[in-house]
Write a structure and sequence with these properties.
Belongs to the thiamine-monophosphate kinase family. It catalyses: thiamine phosphate + ATP = thiamine diphosphate + ADP. The protein has 315 residues and is an alpha+beta fold. It contains 10 helices and 15 strands. It is 32% helix and 26% strand. The strands form 4 sheets. It has a 7-stranded mixed sheet, with helices on both faces. Strands 3-6-4-5 form a 4-stranded mixed sheet. The structure holds magnesium ion (MG). The site of magnesium ion has 5 residues, from helix 2 and strand 8.
């Protein structure tokens, strides 16, 4: 099967199946056209996933489809944006129709779940790589940036952390133990927190999605906002279906795609109960700089904020 046949038989139907109102023109022309409603802004972000770097070589293509789109959409969630459409640049070692069909199956499931349409793309030959650019919209001026955190505000996360990191050792196991299932589900099917992001517009002062680990991603907020923070490790949720990720996995593990949110105390009371119930307060923002871990036994640990994964340094 060639490039054009893959597009005609698999990707064009995916675009048609996931089409939504915000897409004026989908694939087939030189560009796609997206409608941005009056009073809204276009929010967009691009992510590349390389086999052997961002997912294991030989990773199941259905899961790859879901995971790739979830990771990309998670950046929209972090800004409080509503997903609209995405473009996909796919580099494949060969045009294996069975593999591509499975990938499209995973993409379609995720596209429907997150309410985002395939609007266009490109296929080339080479080492397996997916690049996804997601587009969303947000009411003018309401995108949640990294730079708005202020001293005295709360640091919260939207769910348990460390599950994807804990899953890594079980990914290639033929029969992982039942205790690993919650971790594996988190790795294979991350759930971008779009609805929470939307509800936090106008209330959260800063947010980021946790792709590199809580300490690294919170560090990005602190740096952008020019503040410091105190984090209570004992309050960081890390329970997955009855099995706990380690504290190190919860603080430093990536790929969970929960949100780290900064909000004033008063905002917690304004949130609908369902949203407030989805937030775990894990610390507070302080004047100055730096990140301190306030351990339950009274020990205070100053941590140097990790920068996140550096693809050229490997750490
Ligand atoms: Mg992000």
């Amino acid at each position: 099967m060639g490039e054009f046949e893959l597009i005609r038989t698999l990707f064009r139907p995916l675009a048609e199946a996931t089409w939504q109102d915000g897409v004026v023109l989908g694939p087939g022309d030189d560009c796609a056209i997206q409608r941005v409603p009056p009073g809204h802004e276009l929010v967009f972000s691009i992510d590349t996933l390389v086999a052997g770097v961002h997912f294991p070589a030989g990773y199941d293509p259905v899961r790859l489809g879901w995971r790739s789109l979830a990771a990309a959409v998670s950046d929209l969630a972090a800004m409080g944006a509503d997903p609209v459409c995405y473009t996909l640049a796919l580099t494949l070692p060969d045009a294996d129709p069975g593999w591509a069909k499975s990938l499209v199956g995973g993409l379609e499931e995720a596209s429907r779940a997150f309410g985002i349409a395939l609007a266009g793309g490109d296929i080339t030959r080479g080492p397996l790589t997916l690049t996804i650019q997601v587009h969303g919209t947000v009411p003018e001026g309401q995108a949640i940036r990294r730079s708005g955190a202020r001293s005295g505000e709360l640091v919260a996360v939207t769910g348990p952390l460390g599950g994807a990191a804990a899953a890594l050792s079980w990914l290639e196991a033929a029969s992982p133990p039942a205790s690993a299932e919650g971790f594996l589900a988190r790795y294979h099917r991350p759930q971008p927190r779009c609805e929470l992001g939307r509800q936090l517009r106008g209330l959260a002062t800063a947010a980021i999605d946790i792709s590199d680990g809580l300490l690294a991603d919170l560090g990005h907020i602190l740096e952008a906002s020019g503040v410091g923070a105190e984090l209570e490790p004992g309050r960081v949720p890390r329970n997955f279906d009855g099995t706990q990720a380690t504290l190190d996995q919860a603080l430093n593990g990536g790929d969970d795609y929960e949100l780290c949110v900064i909000l004033p105390h008063s905002a917690l009371e304004q949130l609908p109960g369902s949203v407030a119930d989805s937030l775990w307060v894990v610390g507070k923002v302080c004047a100055g700089s730096g990140l301190r871990l306030m351990h339950a036994d009274g020990v205070i640990e100053e941590v140097s904020v990790p920068m996140g994964y550096d693809h050229f340094r490997g750490q």
